[in-house]
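Troubleshooting: if your tokenizer reports a length mismatch, compare your output against this known-good record of 85 residues.
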Amino acid sequence: MPNRRILVVEDDVSLRSLFADILRTADLEVIEAEEGGEALRVLSAEKVGLVLCDEKMSPMDGSAFLREVQRRLPGLPVLMISGYA
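Known-good structure output:
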């Protein structure tokens, strides 16, 4: 069985909670992180099957986070999202 644990990385608490709630209704296990540094600490301690990450975050933006994930965990799927055009 594939890993059904999803890491949601979003600095807006209401959006992070919304994404997490939607994923939980699909019977997925969700771990939440507020920003890229916190998410990298989670990834060093937990196995996840997918990362859902906001592009516009601070202090580490989504692109920098993605590069670091690719360096540390090549092959881990990362789905980038953005509310900006």
